[in-house]
Amino acid sequence: MNDDEPTIDLDAYQRRIGLDLGSRAAPTLATLARLVEHHARAIPFENIEVMAGRVPALDVGALQAKMLQRKRGGYCFEQNNLLRACLLQLGYEVQRLEARVRAGVPAEVVTGRTHMALRVTIDGVSYLADVGFGGMAPVAPLQLASRGEQPAADGLYRFVDVDSDLLMQTRSHEGWADCYRIMPVAPQHIDYEIGNWYVATHAKSMLRQNLLVARAVPGGRLMLFNRQLTLRRPATAVPIERTLATRAEVEAVLADDFDLQIDAADLDAVMRIIASRDA
């Protein structure tokens, strides 16, 4: 990807996310909020490419072909690089962020820098924009300098200083839960290429070993983790869960709930990995 000249078909992007900004869209906080929300509701997080044994391409052309033309989803490197290209073309000041995932990780375990998010600066104020963190991504921009609670659609978030890092947390019915720790050093595009390759190919990568699909829906966040379909509701509400027993159920949920049409070979690969988890 040429970082200096990202090009994206803005009309195709707006059609994909169901948003018409018109011809005079200004790089404002209100426009950013609309973009993040519509993107999160229209383009699912999904790692099926990785489960099928492929390394996702991160150049803008490949991202457009996959997520805009084929109407597939993607994971953080894909989703946030696509959003970044859109924001730059609209005139926003955007910097990439690199983070260590902390969700579901014991405190003593050090994780790699395998998450990508964005810093968007508007009128001197910096916001986190992230459409690529599975079932926990905030469906609104968050002020990076704030240490108070911040609502984002049906979620509640906060930032906590930890050493030189910035830890993002979200509130569930069980209390505050860690999401990821943002690193203070500005990364380069090659850092994401390495992280993308690691996540897609390492034998112990969580996203190689498990199906994870998520999208924002009215009333919460819908997530499929292997066979477990969960609707995460507002912060204090208990999630609604059900287990998918058959391949046909998994295929139907991907198509009907996530609007993903997955070809038979890729679905075979997904079901083989899920079956190995069941054993």
Structure write-up:
The protein is of the alpha+beta class and 279 residues long. It is built from nine helices and 13 strands. The strands form two sheets. The protein has an eight-stranded antiparallel β-sheet with strand order 5-4-3-2-9-8-7-6, covered by helices on one side. A hairpin with a 7-residue loop joins strand 12 and strand 13. The N and C termini lie far apart (41 Å). The model has no long low-confidence stretch (mean pLDDT 93).
Brief synopsis:
By secondary structure, this protein is α+β, with helices and mostly antiparallel strands. The chain contains nine helices and 13 strands.
Order of strands, main sheet, comes to 5-4-3-2-9-8-7-6
How do the helices and strands follow one another from N- to C-terminus? HHEHHHEEEEEEEEHHEEEEHH
CATH architecture name = 2-Layer Sandwich
- Largest sheet: number of strands, sense, barrel closure: 8 strands, antiparallel
Would you tell me the overall average pLDDT? 93
Poorly predicted tracts of residues: none
**Count of helical stretches:** 9
Structural class of the helices, strands and pairings?
alpha+beta
What fold name stands as the CATH topology? Arylamine N-acetyltransferase fold
Radius of gyration, whole Å = 18 Å
